[in-house]
Each structure stands twice: as structure tokens, then as C-alpha cells.
Structure prediction request, 149 residues.
Amino acid sequence: MNAALPISLGIGGEQRVSFGAKLAKDENELSKIILDAAFRVHSALGPGLLESAYEACLAYELRNEGLEVLTQVPLPLVYREVRLDIGYRLDMVVEDLVIGEIKAIDSLTAIHQAQVISYLKLSGKKLGILINFNTLRLRDGIKRVVHGL
Prediction:
């Protein structure tokens, strides 16, 4: 018996096939897995490194969990039915459901949260996790951002 595989279109329009347990995960389950992995990365590395180092290590941890992780995903802006490729990039997209926005800055401000909300709107995703690794206690650098969930 040949069962049809579920296919979805990613942000860039590429086709993706989902297998097995990945279908059971929703945004909330994924957010817990992402945060657990972020805590492991922060425990190992601490604050003070470049954003790119944290992004690479977090992607590595999540892939080891068996998750599909894309990094530096181009995000077009569609304005009045015109697609504008003007250089927006999502730091991380996990399982084509959750956006991860990685920072290594002094502190998060309202504009960082607004940036994630804009990314959620443009991508059609419902959940974004904003993580600032440049904190002594990682829990002080985490914001869960929801749009339509």
C-alpha cells in the first residue's frame, strides 16, 4: 500500500515532505523543544559570543532532535501584489512552523518583538521565539511572540 506523503510549501515555495512523528508536533510542543535546546547551548557557551555561533549551535541541537531546521531563510515582502526581495532573512525556521530569531545583544527592546511580529505576518507563521543569548540567565532573554495562534 502506498500512502500519500503530506507535502507543504515552504516560505520560498519549495516542496517539503513531512515524515512520521514530525506530523504530531505543533507550535507549542516545538517551542518547548527549542527552548530546552537553547538552554543547553547557553549552559555550554554562556553569554558573550556572536549571534552566528549561537544560531549554528542551536540548529545543531535541534537537528540532533530529529527536527527540520532551516537557517538564514530569505523572506520576501509582498506589497500590493508585488513581491520584493529586499534582503529580509529569518534566522531559523523549525519544522516549517516556528520562527526562531536569535540575538546576542545587551537587552531586548520592543522593536525586537515588533520585528518578530512582522516576520510572522510576512511568513504566515503563528509562533516566533525571540532568544537573546547575551544574558547571564537565559530565561531573562526569551520572548514568545504569537500571531494568530
Summary: Helices lie at 27-45, 51-64, 110-123. The radius of gyration is 16 Å. Residues 113 and 145 are 7 Å apart (CA to CA).
